[in-house]
Amino acid sequence: MNIDRARITQMITLEISGLQALLDALAKRGYRVIGPKLRDQAIAYDDISSVRDLPAGWTDEQEGGHYRVTRRSDDALFGYAVGPHSWKRFLYPPIQQLWRARHKGSAVSVTPVPPSAERFAFFGVRACELHAIEIQDRVFMNGELADPHYKARRENAFVVAVNCGTAGGTCFCVSMNTGPGVKRGFDIALTELVEGGAHRFVVEAGSDKGREVLAALPQHAAKPEEIKAAEAVVAKTASSMGRAMKADDVREVLMRNLDNPRWDHVAERCMTCGNCTMVCPTCFCMTVEDSSDLEGLETSRSRRWDSCFTMDHSYVHGGSVRGSAKARYRQWLTHKLATWVDQFGTSGCVGCGRCITWCPVGIDITEEVAAIRNSESR
Amino acid sequence: MAPVTEKKAAVTVHDPMLPRVARVRKRQRDLADVWTLNLEMEDGELLKFAPGQFNMLTVFGVGEVPISISGDPAEDGGGLVHTIRAVGTASGALTRLGLGAAVGVRGPFGTSWPVEEAKGNDVVILAGGLGLAPLRPMIYSVLANRRHYGRVALLYGARSPEEILFRSELEQWRRRLDIELQVTVDHAETDWYGSVGVVTTLVPRATFDPHNTVAVVCGPEIMMRFGTAALRKAGVPDQSMYLSMERSMKCAVGLCGHCQLGSAFVCRDGPVFRSDQLGSLMTVKEL
After folding, report:
1. pLDDT digit string, tens, across residues A25-65
2. A290 vs B58: CB contact, 8 Å cut-off?
């Protein structure tokens, strides 16, 4: 990791007690702190108030269609990759009411649901997830049509990032140039050091807000050997990625292969369940639903997450544009890796591996891209 | 001091997802399952629009659908005229609304027909079925400024004589000597004296200079695919052909993801596209 001098001189070290002080400081400032927690045998994001809420000593074992939490040999608090949740569920909740209309006689008045004033502190955001948030910023805060709900939650959020100390079996952030070290987009960044009974965090601020919070915590200036150890943690993680994808020309490869027979091959396995789109930290498709009370005096509209794997997604009267599993998988993959670039100037994939892990049949995005690529050279 | 009366704050909320309330002022049955509704905004706004654009219409408590505007852009309220086929829950509910009923309106959205670009050229208007409705504002504009255009051909195909939309207007247009109107139906009983066959068969019969023509095409996707092919065969380059795409839409502002066609959001980058911009997107199945 390439850290410049100025950043190094400002790095500090926190003990576990300092980490608790950080959680307290965030709560005291009115933040609702969300962080990783062991829940239903997965590491999920939930409300936390204490270091004891964090999954100390747990790690996750991830492969295509496979996720298990297992014990580590140490008490690391962040010794796993990413779980089924991403921060999108807080910035862009699965269901959001948009407006309510009151009907009195023939009069109708439509009132927008105001954006949430909730201030989140996200605790333990990974490098890939910071990139995912940055990508959703481009989707939802795109000029005059910015989404007021996303914007409010996003602008109020405080981000405590964590440099990854463990690469998951399905991780490929190095390929996507999105990790495992955090570079920008955080208020505070932590690197966890667990060695020989010592448990410390090398910490840096990424914003004035972050600096202000750190200033009051019990700490010492990070020692050169601690900074070196922190850099080694990221380097080790980078060298142990579970997967890789050649990403530089993937857009062109996919767009000239819209009729590749590999799409039929993947369609034989794909159940079009949409899990990949639900766990993806950047997928943003939504649908709207209108509802009414029994008397029709109040009606409302809500939006909720949708998936391009449903038949409804492309339904126009008479039928769905993408009726086959092949067409729906192709839409998802080409959008994520190719047309997304045209739309938002960035890939829609951050290499977190969730779509591989949580696919019930273990379809692997890196393998599918490689298969299409290799079919060209045959 | 006199008490300050609480003023209703005139907040200009710019929330593109928020419908404004309009009322049904006129409703007219065009076909067995097709109605034209004239709406009026409660706040009096006339909703300026460009031919080819669409609005999102809400029946409160039922749902919202994208409906193209079929009114005359030169008329007040032309942007609030919609021709709707009852095919789904929301479109069906729209056609059943009585006079004075409330409708939520968002819009207008999307790109428009090349009304300006076509000036100085021959114009071929190729419409299939209900595709005539989104083209009607373009027809009004061309006829209102007739001298700016070369030859004008309106080629219209319907499934059967009973399915011919805007019949009385077509008859008015037929009486004009400055527009070539040809109508065909896919199938008919023996009492039909007009031509029978798909709309693309009208293209070779129409008079236009292919190198100096702007063609606009609207209808079912398969009709547009064969329609543009027929025009191409007649010598019209893809850069001079425009078509209006239909996709599922939930937001109309490029956020919901439903209307994607390749890298385009049909709601925002369309619905009107120039044929050369679509390219292979029209020929890859189930894209």
Report:
1. 999 999 999 999 999 999 999 999 999 999 999 999 999 99
2. yes
* A-chain residue closest to B89, CA distance: A317
A303: three-class secondary structure by DSSP: strand
One domain, residues A62 and A179: yes
Q: CB-based contact (8 Å) between B11 and chain A? A: no
Shortest distance, CA B108 to any CA of chain A (angstroms): 14
Domain count, chain A: 2
Do residues A158 and A203 share a domain?
yes
A6 contacts: CB under 8 Å, gap ≥ 6: none
- Token pair 């208020």 is at which residue? A187
Residues A206 and A274 in one domain: no
pLDDT tens digits, residue range A56-97?
A: 999 999 999 999 999 999 999 999 999 999 999 999 999 999
- Structural domain including A361 reads 250-283+308-377
- Cβ <8 Å between A299 and B61: yes
- How far is the C-alpha of B234 from the C-alpha of B226, rounded, in Å? 12
A148: which chain B residues are within 8 Å (Cβ-Cβ)? 15
B99 lies within 8 A of chain A by CB: no
Residue A173, domain member (yes or no): yes
Residue B78's domain spans which residues?
Answer: 20-109
Give A360's contacts (C-beta < 8 A, 6+ positions apart): A65, A271, A273, A275
What is the value of ipTM here, to two decimals? 0.92
- Residues 42-71 on B with a CB inside 8 Å of A are 58, 60-64
Tell whether the torsion through CA atoms of A299, A301, A307 and A309 is positive or negative: positive
Q: Does A306 touch chain B (CB under 8 A)?
A: yes
Tens of pLDDT, residues B92-119: 999 999 999 999 999 999 999 999 999 9
A291 and B CB contact within 8 Å: yes
CB spacing of B60 vs A290 below 8 angstroms: yes
d(CA B69, CA A220): 67
Sort out which chain A residues have CB atoms less than 8 A from B8's CB and list them. none
d(CA B199, CA B132): 12
Residue to substitute from B258, B269, B281, interface A, most A β-carbons within 10 A: B258
Same domain? B145 vs B87: no
Cα dihedral sign, B136-B138-B144-B149: negative
Same domain, B33 and B127: no
